[in-house]
Specification:
Strand 3 and strand 4 form a beta hairpin. The protein has five helices and six strands. The chain has a six-stranded mixed sheet with strand order 1-6-5-2-4-3, with helices on both faces. It is globular, with a radius of gyration of 14 Å. The chain has a single domain (2-169), classed as Leucine Aminopeptidase, subunit E, domain 1 (3-Layer(aba) Sandwich), CATH 3.40.220.10. By secondary structure, the chain is α/β, with parallel strands linked by helices.
Length: 171
């Protein structure tokens, strides 16, 4: 499996699945979540509403999917990252679960390429370097367990995250 790093807008990167840093109610919020809902169109909101009706939403660390609508992808995998509370509320394991469960779901869907944002590092306040370490380590640990995924792309919106990911990936 190939791992790439891109700085840019995750909604413009062609791939099979875009991971959305969603909230537990699966309603478009700010940041990546809001951008994915805006660009993807109403089909994403409609399918998120169906998921809410069936299961109440998506718990932290879990993942669900919808169609990608107008995005350059087939699927949106919605995962809910933990809100940073100092690291004593199981945040590292919950964040790793976001990546694990997104990868497992993508593999079940037959996805060949998947893009990840910097989950939980925006309004949820997760420290960026620690979050990047968890993201990279989890993806690398799962590389041999996945059947369909050929490429994982970390898409960083800002240069600070790009520098962090670049340094970690070069080790």
């Amino acid at each position: 499996m190939k791992i790439e790093l891109i700085q840019g807008d995750i909604t413009s990167i062609p791939c099979d699945a875009i991971v959305n840093a969603a909230n537990s109610k699966l309603v478009g919020g700010g940041g990546v979540d809001g951008a994915i809902h805006r660009v993807g169109g109403t089909i994403i909101a409609q399918q998120c509403a169906e998921i809410r009706q069936q299961s109440g939403g998506c718990p932290t660390g879990e993942a669900v999917y919808t169609d990608a609508g107008n995005l350059p992808a087939r699927f949106v995998i919605h995962t809910v990252g933990p809100i940073w509370q100092g690291g004593m509320k199981n945040e590292p394991e919950l964040l790793a679960n976001c990546y694990r469960n997104s990868l497992l779901l993508a593999d079940r869907l037959g996805v060949k390429s998947i893009t990840f944002p910097n989950i939980s590092t925006g309004v949820y306040g997760y420290p960026k370097e620690e979050a990047a370490e968890i993201a990279i380590r989890t993806v690398q640990e799962f590389a041999d367990k996945l059947h369909s995924i050929e490429k994982v792309i970390f898409v960083c919106f800002d240069s600070e995250n790009v520098k962090i990911y670049r340094a970690l990936l070069s080790q």
